Amino acid sequence: MALNYMHKKNIVHRDLKPENILIESLENLEIKLTDFGFATYFDQKGKLDEVLGSPLYMPPEIVMK
What we know:
Layout: H1 2-8, E1 11-12, E2 21-25, E3 30-33, E4 40-41, H2 60-63
Antiparallel strand pairs: 1-4, 2-3
């Protein structure tokens, strides 16, 4: 739900990984998204071509550039 909200506001996280997803409650399945250090607004006219995030969670074709 957090990602959906962000994307509706044209914000991208750019560093999604297990360490940035926190489970607040298993009973209600409350999940929190953290670490917005690389987050930015996405402009439909432009593109995001910076390589950001954690290399261990990136596909090899991105890391090898």
